[in-house]
Specification:
The protein has 121 residues and is mainly alpha-helical. The chain has one domain. 50% of the residues lie in helices and 11% in strands. It has four helices and two strands; from the N terminus they run H-E-E-H-H-H. A two-stranded antiparallel ribbon has the order 1-2. A hairpin with a 4-residue loop joins strand 1 and strand 2. The radius of gyration is 19 Å and the shape is elongated. The chain starts with a helix and ends with a helix.
Length: 121
């Protein structure tokens, strides 16, 4: 194997390692942020909607990761979309609000950036 071939091989190995570390970091951030949403932002009446949080990996290959975080799946809490989209005062928990899923994901982007910057190879 030539020096150039070894260099290219080493480069590809590094890229693969970076991809894996980034995917692990993003997946952990999704789980952490969904928990923040569930515990702090999701309005609670009966607790049904709060119990329907789901995190599903839709695609995980060498270079791509698609994770879906959703609430109220399969008709378990059919009012979820209305609660998420209609601006109404919610009292339980105190920080409960509409946009309870999207708000924490927006707020937590700087944390994701810091986590990605902290990746050590």
């Amino acid at each position: 194997m030539t020096g150039g071939s070894k260099c290219v091989e080493g480069f590809h190995a590094t890229v693969d390692k970076v991809n894996e570390e980034v995917k692990k970091t993003v997946a952990q951030w999704v789980v952490d942020t969904a928990l923040i949403s569930q515990e702090n932002y999701c309005p609670v009446d009966t607790g049904l909607m709060k119990s329907t949080y789901r995190i599903i990996t839709l695609l995980d290959d060498a270079t791509s990761l698609i994770i879906e975080c959703s609430v109220g799946n399969n008709g378990e809490a059919p009012y979820t979309l209305l609660v998420h989209e209609i601006d109404k005062a919610h009292l339980n928990p105190p920080s409960a609000q509409y946009k309870f899923l999207s708000t924490p994901f927006t707020i937590e982007v700087p944390k994701l950036n810091a986590m990605l910057e902290a990746i050590k190879l």
